[in-house]
Amino acid sequence: MIGLIDINTGNLASLVSALSKLNIKFKICKKRHDFESLNKFILPGVGAYDDFMKKLINLKFDKIIQKKISNNCSFLGICVGYQVLFNGSSEHGMHEGLNIIKGKFVNFIDENKNIKIPHVGWNECKLINKNELFYEIKDNSDFYFTHSYILKDFDKENIASKTNYIVDFVSAVNFKNVYGVQFHPEKSQLNGLKLLKNFNERC
Amino acid sequence: MLKKRIIITLTFLDGVLFRTKNFKPDYRYTKNFIDLWSIDELLLIDISKKKFSKNFLNTIKYFTENCFVPITVGGGIKKIQDADLYFKNGADKILLGTHDLEKSNMIEDISKKYGSQSIIQSIDCKKKSKNEYTVMTNSGNSNLENNVILYGKKALKQGAGEILINSIDNDGSLLGYDMQLVNLISRNLNSPLLALGGGGNWNHLLELFLKTNISAACTQNIFHFTEESILSAKKFLKQNNINIRH
Q1: All domains in chain A, ordered by first residue
Q2: Tag placement on chain A: N or C end, fewer CB within 10 Å?
Q3: pLDDT in tens, A118-150
Q4: Each residue of A100-110: pLDDT tens digit?
């Protein structure tokens, strides 16, 4: 059973469809007590970083997530849900994240002024350090991205995949029991469904 | 490397799938025509008089539950509550029709709640003279302003993530995309751009990708995109060195 963390950002529908398609059992976690007895979670995320963090804090989900992760629960962050696992982001001023993995987010434009943002569309993931999330997924497979911020000041050993959009950036990480992907597996057809299946069965 | 996208565009009249010509319903289809596993992205537009009908919302749901690609929904969005309804039914992004940017906070409101990446702003363009285009609104019936670039810049500043360049003149013509219009806008805007209007065969897609800096080609003439042909179109583009997902 996967806990699907819902902080009321409006759109869980696509992830619900994907998990249903895979016959994966899940429970939507809207209140603190919904987290009880679960040990595997997905944190999907859309919208702005600061807004997303504020909602997590207001619901006191930040503490629960930190605790669940330190208690060795498996965790998958998607898009902004991936970004908040790190120390912070410079989106709309500097904002602090959940401080679970080392690194912070900066805009593509800080790397190269001529980059068109957001980075939207299908792009390849070059697999770096082997992990179970990408089990039987071919190197350089396509996934769907939509974002403007990328990870900096990270630990190399946590990188699961890299992607190139004018610059190389980290597109997936794995740190102990925690996984994070910048792309949207629930929008990435067969590759994405396979990745969600892997998270459920192998992570 | 980022792939060029082909966005299958479907227009619905009272829940029934139609093709349009010059912005009017023209030809009826069924959704079984579409190979859900070969597409990169979907754009669903309601062209009915009465918007937000149960029929259309169920259509969105059908696609959300059956294809795992990004889905953009448009038609009749005038305020954030309209967008809420589409997001709630499974839209990943919403398409905003050309509207008066000075008189509306809609883009700011939606981008605050769902993020810029969730907003595609359409610029409905009509050719005025050889090198001039105007921005049209009200289903292409009234002139809004004369500078297509300025309109695009304002929309991005308010928080739109992508711009759809919609050629009214080429809509449903099957004569190819308006390359001049696309280039005019892409030289001046720093965001992903989508082109709609005129795509009738694979060569039109190729021409668009070769001659412009476009991120995505939208095409609604799905007669050319039945099961075999989405794959064949992609193969054709790939053979011609277009970076496409296959």
Answers
A1: 2-202 (3.40.50.880)
A2: N
A3: 999 999 999 999 899 999 999 999 999 999 999
A4: 999 999 999 99
For A46, the closest of B90, B115, B192 (CB atoms) is B115
Is the pLDDT assigned to residue A176 strictly greater than 90?
A: yes
Kindly list the distances between the CA atom of residue B40 and the CA atoms of A19, A79, A187, B69, in Å, as whole numbers in the listed order.
Answer: 20, 19, 9, 6
Q: Find, in chain B, the residue whose alpha carbon is nearest to that of A49.
A: B115
Q: How far apart are alpha carbons B68 and A124 in whole angstroms?
A: 17
CA distance A94 to A105: 9
Average pLDDT, chain A: 95
B191 vs A17, A46, A116: nearest CB: A116
**Catalytic residue selected from A79, A91, A95, A203:** A79
ipTM score for this prediction: 0.90
- Please indicate, yes or no, if residue B245 is contained in any of the structural domains: no
Residue B28 lies in a domain: yes
Q: Is residue B145 part of a domain?
A: yes
A9 CB neighbours in chain B (<8 A) are: 113-114
Please measure the distance between the N-terminal and C-terminal CA atoms of chain B and give it in whole angstroms.
Answer: 14
Give the gap in angstroms from C-alpha B223 to the nearest C-alpha of chain A: 23
The pLDDT of residue B35 is: 64
Report the alpha-carbon distance of residue B98 to residue B104 in Å, rounded: 11
CA distance B179 to B53: 36
Mean pLDDT of A198-203: 98
Q: Given the DSSP bridges, would you call strands B16-21 and B5-13 parallel, antiparallel or unpaired? A: antiparallel
